[in-house]
Amino acid sequence: MAIAASKFESLELQGVGRSFGGTDALVDLNLTVRAGEFIALLGPSGCGKSTALNCLAGLLPLTHGQILIDGKRVDTVAAENRGFGMVFQNYALFPHLSVEKNIAFGLQMRNVPKPELKSRVAEAIALVKLEQHAKKLPGQLSGGQQQRVAIARAVVMEPRLVLMDEPLSNLDAKLRLEMRTEIRRLHQSLGLTTLYVTHDQEEALSMADRLVVLREGRVQQIGTPEDLHNNPANWRVADFMGYRNLIDLDVTAVTGSAVTLKGEGFTLRGTAVLPVTVGDKARAAIRPEDLVVVSPAEPVRGGNTMAATVSVVEYHGREFAVGVTSPSGRGLHVHSDHAPAIGSTVELTADPERVLVYQADAIDMQELSVEERELAEVRR
Amino acid sequence: MTSPPLGRSTATRSTASLRHRLAERGIDTSLLMLVPALVFALALFVYPFTYGMGLTFQPTAATQEKWGGGAFSNYVAFFKDTFVSDSVWLTMRLALPAALFNVLASIPMAFKLRHRFRGKKLLTTLLVLPITLGTVLTAQGLLIFAGRQGWLNRFLIQIGVIDQPLALVNNYLGVMFSLVISGFPFAFLLISSYLSGIDPSIEAAAKTMGADWKQRFRRIILPLLAPGLATTFILTFVLAFSVFPSARLVGDAMGSTRVMALMAYRAFGEQIDYPMASTIAIMMGVIELAVITAVLLWRSFLYKGSTGGKG
Amino acid sequence: MTTKTDTSGAYGVEPPTHAKGRSGARAPGERSLAASPTTWFVWAGTAAFFIFLIGILVSVVVDSLGKSWFNTWLPASFSKDWYTSAWDQFEMTHIIGVTLTVALVVIVISVLVGVPAAYLLARRNFPLKKTITMLFLLPVLMPPITYGIPLATVMYNLGLGRTLTAVILVNLVPSVPFVIMTMTPFIEQINPTIESAARMSGANMRKVFTKILMPLLIPGILAASILVLVRTVGMFDLTFLVSGPQSDTLVVAIYRAMTAAGGGEARQLISSMAVVYTLTMMVILIVALKFVSPTQLVARVKESRED
After folding, report:
1. pLDDT tens-digit profile of A19-55?
2. Whole-structure pTM over 0.90, yes or no?
3. What is the distance in angstroms between the CA of the first residue and the CA of the last residue of chain B?
4. Chain A nearest CA to C205, separation (Å)
5. Which of A331, A366, B191, B272 could cross-link with B110 by S-S, CB 3.0 to 4.6 Å?
6. Chain centre to alpha carbon of residue A20
């Protein structure tokens, strides 16, 4: 018998919300998950993504809305009876049980007959390649091995839905990449419907079929990795998706979605995501890899050009990440195919297609989460 | 978790039931687990204590006749009867120096012994030994070992340090010895654990910034250790303050070590004057709490950061 | 950027160089092998402490074995007569029986009452939590006599004076808070997501408790039990207030023998009882420490959480 996901047609979250003592941790989350989908909940810490996961798991009761599977309510069902599997950030292995027994625990709770239990546990152990460590206690395993036990423990139940709460955040960078592939492989080979919580946009983009970006408990955007990567719905999502250069400018001309911006001593042509009108304050968002140092291989694009002074150079494999300072004193993150000398003046360019223009709203420091506030302070 | 701004509290009506909302505030059936402990605390602690409090205002006819003061007669007696009120001073004279000594002597010990070395385990095991001795055996042992004809005096005379045996027991000193022997290991083990709770990298950081041994101790370790020291002092003080058997056995029960606990017991067991016994007992509590409060105030005055120890 | 080099320059400044003082000669971080005054102080203090400790212990043992011992280094002759007479005269079997019964009953009750409360205090928030915690803490902070005398008065009024029940009840007063105080941090360090994980695996609350929590709590419960055992066997003040001839524990019996009218019993008799007491206590501790070794399990729990 092979491990396979139990099937359902659709999982529906309708207006799901959760408040803690008068403050909202999660507001009005609407999402339909199709069987076999891999969905990532993405957002900075404190954005409500873990709350959403715990609500779905049944570990936290909902205060608003309902959860339906194929039209049947499950939010009133106790966590232990929902038939979901969960992988926790800190693994949450039972420290007094061996790897085998950790994995067998759930099957024992379901009173699975002994022979079947044995074969399913063995299969799950083989799936995560832990045959040699089956008899060990969790304390004797490395972080990555513990992580694999946690995953095996969740999938052995053949759950309708696997919930993963930042499962890779405690691993070192190299292992994280390995496990990313591993989880993706398991998902594809077992057809597991997965809800994956992370604060790492790269992780989410590389693994998920669809992403849900949350901020302060509210959904900012739901879409495919390409959607989010190329067309963030607002500047905050853009900021989170790696558009590190956010420049406040004035709109001077609009033709269709093509916008011309002025300010800080230069002119920038970009693309408006939502309609803007002349005279608006706008915020241009540019990824560092789209703002490049002009060189023979990187010609000026769309007439966008500005001068800046090099302040930091970091080596990033085939290219260089360069920190520059604009004449008005603004720090920008750019890419370059060569290493410019520190203190030298370089010419920058960016494809107007890749300069996204948003309505600027004032950043109210009070409204920012601790993490965002910290970021704002560093950027200053 | 960040706390979202206040203005944003839920406007939407919660779909949750009342039971659910109560659970949100932490009220549900699992609170029943607390019931046995609460019943126990109320029946065996709160009730007797309030009963005893009430008793202090019902003095016996004899007390009332002798000291007057109506319902407060017991308290009048407590403060006016020098035989009783002196015991407060006698108790403090023992408990404060003993607790202070135990804590102060433990600091350099714990500091020196915090690194790994051979025999550390043996040493800490030996330090637990006094627990197995108990007050009574300690008293008996002190009487024999440090008595006039004991090994200690015999040895000191033999090597010519003294001509006459020192009076080390049946007086203030005897009780002090007993308090140190039972209290020191306790203080040492506590302070050691507080010390081990201080992240060594903090001290390493101070080292890289050029602080020498003394500066590191005074400016880094001591402030971090202060809460632990205060706690240890309080706990050893509590131990020493309620000293009773040793005050009777190795002390001078009618003189220099006539401590409050002895007075309370005398009223309780020998004079069968429960109201007076309760009065002395409650006053013990009051005085002890006063000392604890003073220490805690000193502590909050001294240091306001997060605790370094694993309190 | 120029500022970067500036700051690194500031950090690059040599820390104040060590003068040629006592500590200057050696590299920072190294400890000198020659003993400093503090070291001397520490070792002298330790030595003095142990001289007293061992002196006390050995002299009691020697005394209990000596036929008679007055003005000499050692008793004239040795015998174990004092032990046999202590046994006959004081019904030591009965006293030890009482002591152990009291201790065991106190342990069982205080664990049953204290652990659920500790669990709740460690895991949950509820109204009046601070007040309740304070209430549980008070008996540990107060001198035993302070609540002991009112409590004993109540016991005598209820007609429980000098009974075994009274001895057990008074000993519970510091023991239950003690179990709560030791178990609360122990439960706090058990990762709560382990319980969530068990529920996600389909275990209901009862199964979570029996299959996951109990095994994890055992080391903590054992440790707390041992501490309660040691405290109860050694508890003098409270027991003394309510016990009578038939319900005296060992410590109280020894105290009564030492202070009996007419200058107390023969010194050697008391010494032999004291030795019996210490031996009982040591046996308890040694046996207990064997069982407590699973505390390593706790360390593992912690480790797997931290990495």
Report:
1. 877 788 898 899 999 988 999 999 888 788 888 999 9
2. no
3. 24
4. 9
5. B191
6. 24
